Amino acid sequence: MANGYSIFVGLVVIVALCLAAWFFSPKGENQVLWRSSLILTFVSCYLMWAITFLAQLHPLIEPRRSDLRKEFLNH
Question: Where in the cell (predicted)?
Answer without folding.
Answer: Endomembrane system
